[in-house]
Amino acid sequence: MLDPTEDLPLYRLRQATMDDFPFAESLTHKNMDGYYRRHNLVWRGDLFLCSWRDSENFVLEVDGAPVGVMRVTEENDSLHIRDVQIAEGWRGQGAGTFLLDTAHRWARARGLAECQLRVFVDNPAARLYIRMGYRPAGSRLAQLGAIRHMARRV
């Protein structure tokens, strides 16, 4: 029997299937569209599909309804967080923190040294990443463009 005083997590993360691809692509495209336009980039659904097939993909749910996506790959001694996408209306409610905390636990469980990600310089999510210990990574030259590469030890 459930203890009614026990805190039940609001979010549930499950492994995605190809049936989730339309939701994931639509959410990612919608969330990234402004950044792509501002930085003169073109969305390529075919490249997103290739990346989807090469990644471990997860859907974040609340009461069985999808509200986010996280995609990761393992590269050398790092867990590379390819996407953390949260649907409008669910941002600022701990969903991003939940996903990042989960990725950090996975990286530790896999014996990896760090998590890394990339973020557009004008993306407000960069504040969350900094708050969670991410710092610029890579060469100084790599930090001059529209996208920042960031990493943190786990």
Automatic annotation (TrEMBL):
Species annotation: Caballeronia telluris
Name under which the protein is recorded: N-acetyltransferase GCN5
Entry annotated with the keyword Phosphoprotein: no
GO MF entry, a single one: acyltransferase activity, transferring groups other than amino-acyl groups
Entry-linked SUPFAM superfamilies: Acyl-CoA N-acyltransferases (Nat)
Classification via InterPro entries: Acyl_CoA_acyltransferase, Bact_Acetyltransf, GNAT_dom
Keywords (A to Z) from UniProt: Acyltransferase, Transferase
Pfam families documented for this protein: Acetyltransf_1
Domain (N-acetyltransferase) ranges: 11-154
Annotated PANTHER family: AMINOALKYLPHOSPHONATE N-ACETYLTRANSFERASE-RELATED (PTHR43877:SF2), AMINOALKYLPHOSPHONATE N-ACETYLTRANSFERASE-RELATED-RELATED (PTHR43877)
